[in-house]
């Protein structure tokens, strides 16, 4: 997942974490936001996956979060783990 978090205040202690909501064969790295397959997937079972990703900061005074709806289309499945980068999603 290619993202950029910008801090406009002097809050260098604030970090951003990423979370997947709902059931899917994918996992997300909470620190980088990189999405990978957690299990083997095959196009014959399901071709399109819709994920809901949340980005949440750790500001103790005024925490912020944002959601993005992401669609992943399986076109050429392999049995190894895939990494998805540079996809387009809809943010709220």
Description of the structure:
The protein is mostly beta strands. The protein is 0% helix and 39% strand. The strands form 2 sheets. Strands 1-4-5-7 form a 4-stranded antiparallel β-sheet, with no helix packed on it. The chain has a 3-stranded antiparallel β-sheet with strand order 2-3-6, with no helix packed on it. It is built from no helices and 7 strands. The protein has a single domain (16-91), classed as Immunoglobulin-like, CATH 2.60.40.
For this entry, give a set of tags.
four-stranded antiparallel β-sheet, 92 residues, elongated
CATH topology: Immunoglobulin-like
| Number of helices, where a helix is a run of at least 4 consecutive DSSP H or I residues | 0
List the strand order in the largest sheet.
1-4-5-7
Structural class: mainly beta
What is the CATH architecture annotation?
Sandwich
Largest sheet: 4 strands, antiparallel
Number of domains: 1
CATH class categorisation: Mainly Beta
Average residue-wise pLDDT: 75
Describe the oligomeric state of these chains in a short phrase: single chain
- Runs in which pLDDT lies below 50 for 5 or more consecutive residues are none
Shape: elongated
Order of helices and strands: EEEEEEE
Topology summary:
Elements: E1 16-21, E2 26-28, E3 35-37, E4 48-57, E5 65-73, E6 83-84, E7 89-91
Antiparallel strand pairs: 1-4, 2-3, 3-6, 4-5, 5-7
């Amino acid at each position: 997942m290619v993202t950029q978090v910008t801090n406009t205040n002097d809050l260098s202690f604030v970090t951003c974490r990423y979370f997947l909501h709902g059931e899917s064969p994918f996992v997300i790295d909470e620190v980088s936001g990189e999405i990978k397959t957690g299990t083997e997937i095959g196009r014959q079972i399901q071709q399109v996956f819709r994920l809901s990703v949340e980005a949440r900061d750790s500001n103790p005074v005024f925490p912020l979060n944002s959601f993005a709806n992401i669609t992943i289309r399986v076109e050429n499945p392999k049995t190894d783990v895939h990494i998805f980068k540079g996809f387009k999603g809809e943010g709220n």
